[in-house]
Amino acid sequence: MKMEKDEPAMAPVEFWEDRYEAASAETSGRPTTVLEKFVKDRPVGHALELGCGKGDDAVWLAKQGWFVTALDISQAAIDIARKNAERNNVAEKINFKVCDLTKDFPDGDYDLVTAQFLESPFEFPRERILNHAARHVCAAGMLLVTTHGSVPPWSETQWETDFPTPEEALVALNLDLTDWTRIFVENFSRIGQKPGSKPGKLIDTVIALERNR
Fold first, then answer.
1. 76, 78, 81, 86 alpha-carbon torsion, rounded to 10°
2. Residue 59 contacts residue 84 (beta carbons within 8 Å)
3. How confident is the model at residue 85 (pLDDT cuts 50, 70, 90)?
4. Which sign, positive or negative, has the C-alpha torsion 175, 176, 179, 185?
5. Most buried residue among 36, 89, 106, 126 by CB atoms closer than 10 A?
6. What is the CA angle 155-159-165, rounded to 5?
7. Which has the closest alpha carbon to 2: 160, 171, 166, 164?
8. Nearest to 198, CA basis, from 154, 159, 155, 156
9. Would you state the pLDDT for residue 3?
10. pLDDT in tens, 146-190
């Protein structure tokens, strides 16, 4: 979900680079809740992660036995993620790449394509990117997309309040749904906490689809 129309006065690459250069190299050490819930019991294979950030999801997948291609627009984020993988002794199972998804996309097909909170304060062709990513999901593979479905209770940022419903979010991907089996297309509630704040209820919009064999 985009923030209100007051975009940063810089290019997207510069914005994300500055953000991760200023960030702590520490990570939570935990995967995204939705990723763990929907992937933990699936057969392992090759995964593609769009927007890997500090690398906790990629590290978790590698620990489960997955081989992972993990992408992020920020070199600083990739540097943190690589060190994260090295600390956890899974660096050989993860191929980290700097990639601007508005301009480039990796080759190959994957047993899992995951996009956890692939969102931006800039104009961003998210649905077009996810539609393209879906074409790289193998037969019996999963497309797993999670976005914010509510404003975090601790947020000081102005957000648009017209969060799409899960069904609207699915329609926006413009997929041929006859090719897919719906695993979960619903809102998902969880308790989250920002450091220094009280725990609060969060709503995630989740699209989990499996490509038909």
1. -110
2. yes
3. very high
4. positive
5. 126
6. 110
7. 160
8. 154
9. 38
10. 999 987 776 766 555 678 999 999 999 999 999 999 999 999 999
Dihedral angle sign, alpha carbons of residues 13, 19, 21, 26: negative
Helix, strand or coil, per DSSP, at residue 30: coil
CA distance 110 to 116: 16
Distance CA 176, CA 153 (A): 36
Helices (H), 88-163: 126-134
Q: Which pair of tokens denotes residue 42?
A: 């699936």
Q: Once rounded to an integer, what is the mean pLDDT over residues 68-92?
A: 98
CB atoms under 10 Å from CB of 198, counted, come to: 8
Question: Are 206 and 185 within 8 A, CB to CB?
Answer: yes
> Which pTM value belongs to this model?
0.91
* Interaxial angle between packed helices 75-87 and 12-22, expressed in degrees from 0 to 180 and rounded to the nearest 10: 40
- Are 66 and 44 within 8 A, CB to CB? yes
| Beta-sheet pairing, 67-72 with 137-148 | unpaired
Check residue 5 and give its pLDDT.
40
8 Å CB contact between 162 and 175:
no
